[in-house]
Amino acid sequence: MIGNKTEYLNAIDRASEFIAASCSSKPQICIVLGSGLGKLASLCEIDKEIPYTDIPGFPVSTAPGHAGRLYIAEVSGKRCYMLGGRFHYYEGYDPEIITFYVRVMARLGVKTLVLTNAAGGILECGEVPCLMIIEDHISFLAESPLRGANLDAFGVRFPDQTHVYDQEYIGMLEECADTLGINVLKGIYAYTRGPQYETPAEIRALKTLGADAVGMSTVPEAIAASHCGMRVAAVSCISNLAAGISKTPLSEEEVLQMADRISNDDCALIKEFIKRL
After folding, report:
1. Angle at Cα 263 formed by Cα 260 and Cα 267, nearest 5°?
2. Could you tell me the pLDDT band of residue 125, with boundaries at 50, 70 and 90?
3. How far, in Å, are 125, 128, 149, 265 from residue 131 at the CA level?
4. N or C terminus: which one in the chain shows less Cβ crowding within 10 Å?
């Protein structure tokens, strides 16, 4: 919950000023390298690499596979910010800290936020890993990052959530996948707080509600981005089948291994998408 609004806004200003001073250009695209997409940093021309620990007010990413670095890079001919790792509720961070970087990016002039993650598959979609374009989300279990004092400089008190995920971007991602010959799904992503995986009963409930995948990130960031007026695109790597559907116990190792297996397709899809922006 955003408590002291003035202090929070000052922290956003300090972080954005530090990043701006480190970058001669002004990227309008930010890509979050979720599980399985970290490889993208090695496929791009990196202009600047900044550890999160150097950025005033930035939290530290502790999740496995999250590098904890901000990259300023050229992706498919476009100058972009890339976050090598995000922040999660299960790490002990409150929603305003999880989404702090979103507001910093908005202050820096970012107009497009590309979110990626690894998720569990709820609808039986065949072989995993596979990729799913997020077209909507279920956020009942997410404490809203907008709770508390409204940041009027970023958005309205009650932002519409009809199209959190930009409809044009969803179509563009489908076209990119078709061009590249990559099979992608479209679906609804359900957020849970973690860090424990969901129970079979919880998965059955989410399936009844219409969810196609489940994960522990992305939704707070997408809400904050929509509040800031950003256009959001999001892709999940379905790295495993969810509890009660999977024939084996769920594990962190499986998620990372399966995300790595499809990382080439994931990177190719994001690079093609960025090229078309």
Report:
1. 155
2. low
3. 10, 9, 37, 8
4. N
Q: What is the pLDDT of residue 36?
A: 67
**Residue 2, pLDDT score:** 61
Closest CA to 215 of 251, 196, 248, 189: 189
Which of 252, 111, 105, 234 is CA-nearest to residue 169? 234
Domain 5-276: CATH superfamily is: Nucleoside phosphorylase domain (3.40.50.1580)
Single-letter residue type at 243: A
Q: What average pLDDT does the segment 143-168 reach?
A: 94
CA-based nearest residue to 102, from 198, 217, 209, 216:
217
In the chain, where the domains are located:
5-276
Kindly state the tokens that stand for 121.
């598959």
State pLDDT tens for residues 227-261. 999 999 999 999 888 887 877 777 777 777 777 77
Q: What's the longest Cα–Cα distance across the chain? A: 51
Is the Cβ–Cβ distance between 182 and 132 less than 8 Å?
Answer: no
Beta bridge partners of 58: none
The span from the CA of 195 to the CA of 255, in Å, is 13
pTM: 0.94
Separation CA 193–CA 50 (nearest Å): 28
- Degrees, nearest 5: CA angle 35-127-174: 70
